[in-house]
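To: structure desk
From: M.T.
Subject: fold request, one chain
Message: Could you run this one when you get a chance? Sequence is below, nothing fancy, just the single chain.
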Amino acid sequence: MKKTAASKKSAAADRASTIEEAPATEKPPAARKSAAAKTAATAKKAPAKKAPAKKASAKKAAPLKRQAPAKKPAVVPKKATAAVKGVAPAKTVAPKPPRGESRTALVRRARRINRELAEVYPYAHPELDFENPFQLVVATVLSAQTTDLRVNQTTPALFAKYPTPEDLAAAVPEEVEEILRPTGFFRAKTKSVIGLSKALTEDFGGEVPGRLEDLVKLPGVGRKTAFVVLGNAFGRPGITVDTHFQRLVRRWRWTEETDPDKIEAAVGALFPKSDWTDLSHHVIWHGRRICHARKPACGACPVAPLCPAYGEGETDPEKAKKLLKYEKGGFPGQRLKPPQAYLDAGGKPAPPLGAG
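Reply: Done. Structure tokens follow.
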């Protein structure tokens, strides 16, 4: 009987606990009303809390905008190729020689460039009109700070009046100045050509010497002028380091030197001596016609695959063609009386002074 009474008490306790835990699963009506009121109040306050939610979503969206630059590498390098100095284009167009290029690789690349230019300009020649060494040395002195074309347009009148060193040595300076006025710096040039004519008359019997050490003693004659005369009037190899030559050999990284004498020595060491004169013609012709100082026509350059400076100029082939000068652009060359080979290749003689 005691056990039965105890069992009843336990069952009653279990029912009581079940009633107390009931709200956890099912709320009484009063509790439901209270919960509904709270929900309504929360709904009214919700708009005020939505603004921070938008801010949070905006903050989360920001990183997506920052990811946009990931697309740039597909576009930027193309622009950089044509606009930024020193940035090489696609390797299939013009591979950039490595900065650590070996001496052997440099020699091979330099000689290959010369061979390519020889094919493009097989008729390359000195662009000063002359009939003898005296005319060439005078014309070369006059070419300083002006174009060969301007010199060629001026020297016919000079040599018609003063055909020999003796004639020019005895000339009246004011009369020579008037003839040379179109070449610029005409007073200094008049002094030089009269001075060298006197030196030729007094020291060399009126003949132009064929040795470098003698030529550089003449007034107004330096190594560049001397090599022009030796190479083109006497057939003795020499490198002509003019402004075009200096610009191109540095672009091609044949040398980093800036002094003309050092450039001459550095470039001369890359080629056989027998190539020096023609090499000078090839480089100078290319500098005047395609590889210009300000706007090189990279897109029309035959040595673009070998050039570390590819991209400094216009790379679009059609636009580059419009930058070409002289015969490749449909214009005449610089000589009034060019060699027949030049004319046979489609070149045109330059117009005389005063011609339209």
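Reply (cont.): The first helix runs from residue 2 to 21. Let me know if you need anything else for the meeting.
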